[in-house]
Amino acid sequence: ANAENLLQIVVTNEDANMWRVYCDQNDYDQAITACKSDLQRQFVYTARAERALKLKRFDEAATAFANAGIAHAIETIAKTFVDLNAKDALYAYMEGRLRGLPQDDAARRLIIAMWLLEEYVKIASFSRNEANDFKVREFLRENFESLDEREALRILSEAGRIDDEIYFAELCGDYDRVLDHFMQIGDARKTLEIAASPKVPRSTLNRVLPTLIKALPKDSIDFMLSRPKTDDDVKIIEALARDDASYAASETSESLAAYLTRYLESITAKPDGAARGDATVHDLLLDVYIKQLESSPTVVATLNKYILDAVDESTNAPYYDVHYAIRMCEKHGAHRSAVYAYCVSRDFDMAMHVALTTLQDVELAKTVTKKAAESKSDDPNEDEITQKKLWIEIAKWSIRKSGALDKAMASMDEDEKRTAIRSALSFLNETNGALRVEDILPLLPDFTIIDDVKDLVLQSLTEHRTEIEQLKEGLEEITAFTQDVQDDIEEMEQKTIVISKDTKCFECGKPVVRLRLMETADDPNLLAPFYVFPCEMAYHTECLLRRTLPLMLIDQRKRALALMRALKVPLPRRLKPETKFWGAPPKSATGLTTAEAVSELEDILCADCPDCGAHDLRLINLPILTPEEEALDEELVRLLPPEWFEPMHAAINMNDPAETYLTMEDFKKIDLGEGWPDHDFFRTF
After folding, report:
1. SS3 506
2. Bridge partners for 538 per DSSP
3. 8 A C-beta contact, residue 98 and residue 143
4. Which residues contact residue 114 at a Cβ distance below 8 angstroms, ignoring those fewer than 6 apart?
5. Which of 274, 436, 580, 613 has the smallest number of Cβ neighbours within 10 A?
6. pTM score, two decimals?
7. pLDDT in tens, 345-390
8. Which H/E stretch holds residue 526?
9. CA-CA distance, 271 to 114, in Å (whole number)?
């Protein structure tokens, strides 16, 4: 600096050598903090290790050498600790170097890891204590990826460290070895705990699940139900269900079959079951139920309920094979269940036969009739016949069961006979009208005294009398209605409608009365010049033909055309293009006089008003314009000048719904402008 200049001193990188200062002062922690490169840190760690060696602090030296990393060869440092007989420091150094090696240096990691494992196992085997065992387990957990699995398992196995061997196998994902070990020692609960892990492969789980289900049925089934249903699970359950040994008592208080049933019920019987509509699984559940009949009689009620409930509500079809169910139930003596299966299949005759012949259970037979009443068909008459037939079978069986048909009954006294007959007929009130006493009387023996069934006969006669009165009243109502209709027809035939001479045809708009045609109006051999309907709509004959022929049904139109050909009535010109859609022209009608042909043709044409009667309803589904007319309309729109549409757009809101329309009166108020046709021109559209 001088009188003219001033120098500025700038401090840069002032702490560049502080690591060395701290290192010379043996303050290695501060020295590491001050280092700015890996080379500087290696120098500091080396200095720290050498000083620790001089002070015989071997563990500290091992850590420092390990942190120095590649600054020293592993063999050199290892030989140093071996020469000093510092094994603990040697192990610490090797572990430190193992942690510091990159993952892609697999060869050196493998050599160091395997040597350390072998050394730790030797130490733990020589001196059994918790610390040594923990050290082996900790080393396996931290370095299992660096070890050779087969060699490591060999080392652990030869040392007799089975627990460490299984632990290492689990770390490596060898769940087959792990699960097999716990199954061999009989620890099923530990096996299930490991098998429940999502890491266990599906193939391994499928292999051990059957054994686990046998050993721990409740816990294993709970585990299976906690997961989504798979086909493998069903196959496992099926294999166990087909095995007769599964139905013997297990070690638990309940049989294994009960838990198999629980699994199948959970996935099928419940409305939200995963296999609700799977016929194969339903048949399997049916097998499980049936195989438990001998060992567990209470299963019968469950089987009966299942047979009745496992039905698709939308189609009324059972989820299971009903014919297979019938065969299996009859084979194993579950006849009551077979009756219910027959009911589900709508074979009520066989259901009744089994109920009465095999089981001789009249109450069950009555249940069959109820099921038949609930299972309605499309034909009510068929349902009624079925009900009557079933109840007659019950009546026959009841009479035969009471002994009323036995020859020995002839020798009974009168009271005993009456008791037997009345006992046989006691169910008649339960038939809900399906049977009456006249249906039962032919089944009774010839020696039956009328007094025995007097009350039933009187009741039946009373019911018949009531029905006859009701039918008589209905017949009288129908007769009166028919007479009213005939009177209306006669009145309509005699009705006269007066029209003015200016009355216009509803089709063409011209007057219907044409004086030159009125001279032949009363000729029965000719069609009238015009027709007037009760609604007072009038049509020229040609206009009526043009209006009604397209709306007629096919058979009606063919007959009308045949009559027109016979009468030589020409087809309106406007209809000739449509005849190509009507098929081949019919032949001329024959066998009728001219007057009869005219009368029949008038009946067809005048059956209903074409504009306010049933004919008009057939226009609902027809398009307003034909495809040809739509094409012509679009072509016309393209040809018209755009300015023609301006007054129309100004008068009509184009955002209105499509149902909105403009009356002719309002339309006439629109100034269409020059070039537009007259407003009345659009009336014809």
Report:
1. coil
2. 532
3. yes
4. 147, 148, 151, 152
5. 580
6. 0.56
7. 999 999 999 998 888 888 898 898 888 888 877 777 788 888 878 8
8. none
9. 58
